[in-house]
Amino acid sequence: MGISLPDKTIKLLYVDHSQLTAVERLQTLIADNQLPITLDVERIEGKIKQRLAALNAEGEQAALLLDNKNKLSLLKDGLSVAPEWDKLQRRVVSAGRKSELILKAAKISADSQVIDATAGFGHDSLILASTGAQVMMLEQEPLMALLLFSEQQRMSAQPNWQKLMARLTIINTDALSYFARLQKNTTDQAVAVDVVYLDPMFPEDSYQDSKTGKGAKVGKQMQALHHLAHPPTLDEEMALLNNAQAVVADNQEGRGRVIVKRPQQAPFLAQQNPDESWHNAAVRFDGYFV
Prior knowledge:
This protein has helices at 20-32, 48-58, 89-94, 101-106, 123-129, 142-156, 162-166, 175-184, 220-228, 234-249; strands spanning 8-14, 37-43, 63-66, 72-76, 79-81, 113-116, 134-138, 168-171, 195-198, 257-263, 276-279, 283-289. The chain has 290 residues and is of the alpha/beta class. It folds into 2 domains: 8-81, Anticodon-binding domain (Rossmann fold), CATH 3.40.50.800; 85-289, Rossmann fold (3-Layer(aba) Sandwich). The strands form 2 sheets. It has a 7-stranded mixed β-sheet. A hairpin with a 2-residue loop joins β4 and β5 (79-81). α8 packs parallel to α10.
């Protein structure tokens, strides 16, 4: 179920007449998933870089680009970003608890049911699904959801990705609304949820040590997300954590957990101490067990 919002008109740039079928597929994805997006379609005449520079000079409005390989990218404030799941192939193939901290924290297996409540570009969902688990990907921002749907469709055309893609279900909705539906209508939750994974937006300086000012740089994908969404307030963090815990509490096997991804130097979500934490130099996973 999508978010009920007025349609937002977004410019879609493409580069060649041969892509009209790909443009139609995007229109179908928007319609089938009830995304509140209307595409203003334009074929780029002349040099791509010049048109993109002109678009950036026109204002702050986000746009989409369908390149000559039919990869969909988001254009915002001079940035061009895309999920690019194919670049994670090596990580996905070799993913395990020893190599991926997120899997060490989540402790999931092939029969697990996972909700990635803040899907973003979907990279963590791929790693979670690499275990064989079913992953429900929630993404509130319609443009980001369209990027995810398009990338899933693109990668599903590659035989060695099809099984993994089949384990991903994408929904354009906010986490709190989805959690509320699960708790109100048990028919939406035929199988108990084992793990809810949260990677909420946080201030851009959260990667920096508060004392030294040093830390990891924010990548361009994270910069793009900051242009589309804002970090939650403390009350919103509390609601997110409490409702996530309520969802996994319905797991009758007593193994439900909420895993929260944070920058290493960031405070705990909603200022709530976790039951256990796993970390490396840049990132931390906080576990809340139910």
